[in-house]
Amino acid sequence: MLTMYTYTLGGKNGKKYVLHESTDMVAVRLIKKADNHKAVISEKSRELLKDFELVEEFPEAGISVFQARESVKDPRALRDRTKSELRKEPDLRFAGKVLIDAESRTLVLYTCNLFIKFKDELDSARCEKILEDNGLIVKKKPDYAPNTYFAKAPDDIGVRIFSLSESLLSREEVEFCHPELIRKRSFRKIHPRQWHLKETEIRNVRINAGVKADLAHKLSKGLGVTIAIIDDGIDIAHPEFREEGKVVYPRDVVMGNDNPLPAYPYDNHGTACAGVAAASGIKASGVAPKAFLMPVRLSSNLGSMAEADAFKWAADHGADIISCSWGPADGNWSDPGDPVHFSQVGLPDSTRLAIDYAISAGRAGKGCIITFAAGNGNEDCGYDGYASYEKVIAVSACNDTGSRCVYSDYGKNVWCAFPSSDFGYAPFGHPSPLTEGIYTTDRLGSGGYNPDGDYTGNFGGTSASCPGVAGTAALILEANPELSWKQVKDILRDTAERIDIQNGNYDASGHSIYYGFGRVNAEKAVKRAVELRSSLKDTRKRKKSEPARS
After folding, report:
1. 191 and 154 share a domain?
2. Is there a catalytic annotation at residue 35?
3. Is 463 a catalytic residue?
4. Chain CA centroid to CA 325, Å
5. Could you report the per-residue pLDDT of 38-88, keeping only the tens digit for each?
6. 57, 358, 366, 450: which is deepest, by most CB within 10 A?
């Protein structure tokens, strides 16, 4: 019988999630965060590891996950024997169990850390006494919500972190509590030129499936608006970002420094996303070419403490818009039976409270606009606690013919659609697109998606759609900086263009599960923002001219 562990998101009456213990995997972590292959271990441990294969790595945490080979007759016994032997190694911090999501079978790592929020009225001394009594050491006291703590349990707590978390949550003084759980973060990518911005001609074919950004630019280019891109690293040395003053408050929230540059060979995603939103227009224009860019490197995986820190940093340092082209792992878009499609991944309370802070305190109380990529699994994004959170804007992908991208997630939580790459797939009767994808910035030199240049012409997925909407929001805010986050969201809804009328399944409210309220129309959105600004000015003038009441 599989051993199960539970945790709760959303407080005492929130949703419980179940994790199973893997019988054939072991997680290994070095004393120092480095390549686990360089660890000096004994011959006995090396012999045991020959019966395993490396299946996942988390380099930012120095963790590698090994799985017993299929030829092993008793994987559980081998796992336990290997764990016991590895724990004797001086270079290793721990060798522990690996947990599996009960629905999707994806692996989940636990740490000795937990997030806890006490009730607002509780005295801080009382909070810290409860932590101390439970053997917890305060690592950080976030200030995006009162009486909130990231705390560390003893290194040897292991899976008992789950029972400790649930025990604390049951206390009257505690509002939220859950362990720090790490999942592999999935970037929302699919691997002329700026057809998504304007009507153009490619290979003698007229394409009019863009967002009319060229027309919007007659009124607004995002001047004075700051877009934060939370991602894997951004090459701010790129010519599109080198304009004086373009980059503001760069940050690596994991390392705690101001260097957002890519650190690993595969850190290509953030640079492309940043270009879609805010490239200056030297060789590729972002939707908002005059916007400021705030690059926030988040190298840790889904559910980490640093995830919440990223939103806090952005909000506190002047971000108007926060773009997030990542989320839980997608299922196989071409396989309707993939169990990952139906795996519900909740939004950690730690991250949710940080998002709430950005929305309530950001922009001097008017609230940051937060966009999330819906996902590329051809699945209901309602299972994704990040993209489906009601306060964010979930963005799906449409193609160069004005129809749904074959991989794009769908559902009632989708707010709007933005153009991206696509590809044909005969089993679904899905035709090939007219273009390669989205033309945007790439890492300089031989790194990145295009080893032969500093730009890529085939970026895509909902990863490209999400910063496109972030850029549109920047155009809106230049036109009318007084708008609240909700007003911006409403403008995107009210000005979106209905596409694919025949297959879009729009309901009575004008909402489609595939496109939300339709494809973004930047020109109409900016004009609506201008109208609202003019209307507000007129109202203020009338009030000023009215005689005072006695």
Report:
1. no
2. no
3. yes
4. 5
5. 556 788 888 888 999 998 888 777 788 999 999 999 999 999 999 888 888
6. 358
